[in-house]
Write a structure and sequence with these properties.
heterodimer; A: 298 residues; mainly alpha; MetI-like fold; 2 domains; two-stranded antiparallel sheet; 14 helices; B: 418 residues; alpha+beta; five-stranded mixed sheet; 18 helices
Chain lengths: 298, 418
Amino acid sequence: MSSVAKSRKRESRIGLLFLSPWLLGLAIFTAYPIIASLYFSFTQYSGLSSPRWIGLENYARLFQDQLFWKSIYNTLYLAIIGIPLAQILSLLVALLLNTKVRFLSVFRTLYFLPSIVPAVATALLWKWFLNPQFGPINLLLERIGLPTPGWLTDPAWSKPALILTSVWGVGGAMVIYLAGLQNIPAELYEAAELDGAGRIARLFRITIPMLSPVILFNVVMGVISSFQSFTSVFIMTAGGPENSTLVYALSIYRNGFQFYRMGYASAMAWILLIITSIAVLFVFKFFGKYGYFGGAEK
Amino acid sequence: MKRVSVILIVVAFAAVITFGRTELSFWYAWGGDEGKALLNLVDEFNKSQDRIIVRPVFVPIGQGEKINTALAGSSTPDIVTIWDWMVVPLGENGALISLNDYLDSAGVTEEDFLPGAWTYGSYRGVKYGLPTTLNAYAFMWNKSLFKEVGLDPDRPPESIEELDRYAELLFRQDTRGNIRRIGFLPNISHIYFYVFGGQLWDQETEEITANHPGNIKALDWVASYYKKFDLQKIRVFQATWGEMASSYNPFYRGQLAIQEAGQWELLFIKQFAKPDFEYGVSPFPAPEGGREKVAYLNGSFWAIPKGSKYPDEAFEFLNWLTASHQSARFAAQLSNIPPKVEAINDPVFADNMPQNMEVYIDMLTNGYVYSFPTLPIGLFYMEELNQALQYVQSGAKTAERALNDVQEAVLRELKRYE
């Protein structure tokens, strides 16, 4: 073996050595539990004593469980309405904050701050905001003469209430869009202006296509996190009223810890994995067709 | 040389002192003053003998996430504090040891306990835990509000029909239709299952009886309150209620005229309500042919995990902790009720009882005592009942259909554990 090849081999061995703690951690704390939960999903398991193999029975029971379908409906509702809403709003805010206004950094900070408030604090705060009788939101709606919904107490309004709460945290996505906007070459806008393109055209023909990778990233992260939403629901509504906010993750938690059905909960977790993978695949396909990733090659 | 040998002797002495005693790890779940009361007891035990030293660790129970994980592994505490619904699932799955033999040799029998407290938490005769202290629930009303609507403040309703009438008299809403005061709202539905002559399970055969005719009648009656006073308006009103353990408690503020009160309310009212707050306590009113003096018991449990290396010593400590005198002291501090008869009569508890506690004691000693069945399926039965109530409240199912569904679901779930 030539000395170049030898040193390369040595380099990769050293690299592997440095990587090994992380790889070991990945194997023990991530890969093993994931594979174990796949096994448990085919068993009757209380989480304490030995699991008993029952094949596909958990999955069969799931498909007959009304609450399972309800939780899927609730979770999809929150995702399908919440994600586009969050992305549009954070993009809008990012566009606004990409202009040269006074106190720009103050505004950027103010819009970003809510997204770093801990989830529990946000949930408690919004539980008060949305109080139907003396929360600030309904007081405002009443003042301007609009109807005051029951928000978290009304099964018809509980999910919109949760979406409202999550929208408060658009600051996170906004910051990422800002970074993406800074990377759009100014010449494109100049050329477009010269050709007579108006603001709207520039937005839809330049800004959004050039932001495709960023939008893709944000949407995928949004899909994953909204399918796993748990904290705000756990604190604000505990799944009610009338199971209108029973989200998938809450149902897994209940089955695993309160009913000691760890096998059943594991099956639910794997179905979530499959659904999330399909959703993310769909997102990638969609962006593959309509997105523009040409900016990368330069 | 002399200095070295002196040091060696001191070190050896210290080692014997520390390592000579069996160390027990005790996971307890009370904070604040209640926690301090327990820690004092633990201290006393440690000082009273030199074979065992108990190390208390504060571990809030939550839904058992931390406890389940510890018990599934090999480094478990020696005594653990858990909710009642956790005792049987943990025990039946091999995470706790059975206490029957220990109790036998220690001479602790059913007669030592208040009615219903001995079988509470056991399943098929096996006791996997001992109750720490007990809560009982009674009918409590605001005397001033009774006076306001022209009712005799010292006379509680004596039948369900009277209760319904009182509830309507006490109801108030404002000009825009928002509820300002609720007379009465049944909250712990299963109390009324028993009041109406039904039952959650047959205690003798340990068979689930979710769809007992008494239960169906009771569920209909409970749901009728939510339909009568408008479910949505009630929810909105309940969202305005303040913290239970504060002066904003809706009962203390007159937003709720009658409540199902745990005995701790006797202490809380003194702490949080206005000094001129007048209230009355009595057993629950019953319908024709129903049950008088229904007493619902609940509480937390102490258990010994199977992974404990010193179960004998752990039980010795547990037996001491639950002995009448210690139990009386702990319960008095919490304003709870000790499970043993001798403890109720112990001056430390009896002389420090808040006013009106006699009503609760009377219900527990002379009434129909029940606790929520502790089954290997954890909270499943209770959750199914919650769902059933929601279906009946919203009109989606009749009480009969809802409870039949509960019966079926619970039986199916139980069969999986056979």
